[in-house]
Design goal:
alpha+beta; 10 Kd Chaperonin, Protein Cpn10, Chain O; elongated
Length: about 160
């Protein structure tokens, strides 16, 4: 009696790889593209960059607005337009520099409301926007700071 074996090693054939033109074109373009710059945030802004920014005069603060993440926990990627809208509408920022007269006025008897390195909340249209490479910074008056927070992500609900 003849017994048959079901061995895959004997019958296994090599399947040719399907060459997809669009996939090859996509990979080629991906290699040729310049790497995207990450938007500025307190983690990736260096002292050199901060030193190149303007010094706030008088009673003004230089604030870096909070940049929202471009991907949700569930993996949804936001469009660039949505991120730009969120950046403009943001009301939180990181204090980079303070002018020499910040909180020196008699209307601050308890001392300064914030210090360099704090996350602050301000009004939506407060301050002057200065576009820089990788984002924007705002120049705020010292009395436009509404409060200090620890984590801006806990306060903001963008979408």
């Amino acid at each position: 009696m003849k017994t048959e074996t079901l061995s895959t090693s004997e019958t296994q054939k090599e399947v040719p790889k399907i060459n997809l033109g669009l996939e090859d074109k996509y990979e080629e373009e991906k290699k040729n593209q310049a790497p995207e710059k990450e938007p500025l945030n307190p983690d990736n802004i260096g002292d050199e960059t901060v030193n190149e920014l303007p010094e706030p005069s008088g009673y003004r603060l230089l604030v870096l607005p909070f940049t929202p993440k471009n991907k949700t926990k569930g993996g949804i990627i936001f469009s660039q337009e949505t991120l730009d809208r969120a950046r403009i509408a943001t009301t939180c920022g990181y204090v980079l520099k303070m002018g020499p007269l910040c909180y020196k006025d008699e209307k601050y008897p308890t001392g300064p409301w914030c210090k360099k390195g704090d996350w602050v909340i301000f009004a939506r249209y407060a301050g002057s926007r200065l576009p820089i490479e990788g984002g924007e910074v705002r120049l705020l008056n010292d009395d436009e700071v509404l409060g200090v927070i620890k984590n801006p992500e806990s306060v903001l609900h963008l979408i």
